[in-house]
Amino acid sequence: MSDPNYDDPASAKARRGRNILLALSLAAFVVIVFVITIVKKSGG
Amino acid sequence: MIDQTLPALVRSRVAASWRDYLQLLKPRVMSLVVLTAVTGLVCSGAPMNPILAAVAILCITLGAGGSAALNMGYDGDIDALMRRTRARAVPAGRIQRADAMGLGVVLSLFSVGIMALATNVLAAALLAFTIAFYAIVYTRWLKRRTVQNIVIGGLAGALPPLVGWAAATGTAPANAWLLVAIIFVWTPPHFWALSLYTSEDYAKAGVPMMPVVKGAAATRAQILAYSLVLVPLCLAPAFTGLGGAVYLAVAALGGTIFLVLATRLFLSRAGETSGERASDGALYDVKAASKVARNLFAFSILYLFLLFTTLLAEHLLGLAPLAPLK
Q1: B195 and B64 housed in the same domain
Q2: pTM for the full model?
């Protein structure tokens, strides 16, 4: 059964905003782990 | 459970935006957590790589946000019953309770894991303890059961400076615990001043806050008692090698104002009349009888902010403490 709000523009916009935030969070996670590793490896 | 208690009118089908998820993290509380954690980290005096220090503060911030999301998810049912909280995303139906708690778990695991990776096990363990204490001990066990809920639960809000200190040094010395003690003793007068003019909400939601269970007069007396302990405690860092002359002046002047406001509140009849607020919409626009309570509530936030900002500024500017470090 399809979600009645699925094609609603407001819902789609909200979903897009959440997805962008999620993508940015995942990217930030990777960057943070990478930076910590570099700093630790270089004796920081 | 939540579907049975939420009023039909708040079961909205409006989709949650990223801002709703951000609000789940209680950003205003997070800002105070950041300030106290940074103060703990800087006051430790230990040299720390600035990137790792920033990551440590980020972890403490996200840990606070995660525990707030867990709290909001669990308390969705009672938040729907209180005017102060019923517009939040979970009681308003924009975010499902399970989604809020899922976000809380992810942020908590992330913050503790990264803290261990970036700093040390003690800091990560203290952060994990802080999150668990707020989300489980306070939210699930204490809040709905005992009048001492915010007294004991206040420990979770008090620990961030210790976590910051531990992140920098790997230790938890007495001066770090002194910062914890200040926030711990500050919490009851702060929250009880608020609850004096929101007690109708708490009563409706079945939360045993002090004014609901013991009455307004007993609450005002307890606020004064805690204030009398708090002010000397706030002066203490000036004698343990943490604070300098500026800190002592701020703590003494602010403490005097705090005691004046607490005494005025004690002598007032705040919390004894029904309908303490001027209107439904204006949550902090209180009637004349409760303005003394609101004044103490507002000043308590300013006082804590000034204390930690001054300590932080003194250490960043290299101002000498009044006493040798204990």
Answers
A1: no
A2: 0.90
